[in-house]
Specification:
Mean pLDDT: 92
Radius of gyration: 17 Å
Structural class: mainly alpha
Order of helices and strands: HHHHHHHH
Shape: globular
Number of domains: 1
Helix content: over 70%
Low-confidence stretches: none
Length: 189
């Protein structure tokens, strides 16, 4: 799934009105498994000036990048983290690790040839799903529409639960992240 969708799903599942640390942790957990990708890609694209085709066509699939992805995309490691958070009864840590696990649960079935080793350190196996959230060769156009539709419903749910001005601004930004790319690509193609 697209990263904004992960934040929306994480917030819908774990954010709590009146608990800003829990809500922030839910958003951070929804983002956490993608952070290494953003950091490494931005370093190569904007600091080193590496060609985007090299970054996303070669480096993304390289052993060195997969060694990083297997850590921050591990069901095993995030599951241990959630277990510790539950043991400690820490609301923010449960929201953080729970949202990260939710992120992985939706990434796992929606990556065809760009998946990650989600079961490290037990295994380096990568699931090759018949579905993709972006690749039209693997139903990406339909999966993407479903993703946007569910995100808009979840944003409506969040709007019902959160009444503050800052929350409404964040929800509006969420709506924009879901609608604008579709309109932009429709205009281009």
């Amino acid at each position: 799934m697209n990263t904004p969708a992960h934040l929306i799903f994480g917030a819908a599942a774990f954010a709590r009105p009146g608990a800003p640390w829990v809500t922030a942790a839910a958003l951070a957990g929804g983002l956490a498994p993608d952070c290494s990708l953003y950091l490494m890609a931005c370093w190569h694209l904007f600091v080193l000036g590496t060609d985007p085709q090299t970054v996303f066509g070669q480096l993304y699939f390289s052993d060195s990048w997969m060694r990083v992805f297997r850590v921050d995309n591990s069901f095993v490691l995030w599951g241990i983290g959630l277990g510790v958070a539950l043991w400690l009864r820490s609301g923010w840590a449960i929201a953080f690790t729970g949202a990260a696990l939710l992120h992985l649960a939706f990434d796992f079935p929606l990556h065809h040839d760009d998946g990650r080793p989600h079961f490290w350190p037990i295994s380096d196996w990568v699931f090759e799903s018949p579905y993709s959230y972006w690749d039209r060769m693997h139903h990406g156009q339909f999966v993407g529409l479903i993703e946007v539709g569910i995100c808009l419903i979840l944003l409506g749910y969040l709007g019902y639960r959160f009444k503050g001005t800052m929350a409404r601004i964040m929800i509006a930004i969420g709506v924009i992240t879901q609608i604008v790319p579709g309109l932009m690509w429709s205009a281009i193609f």
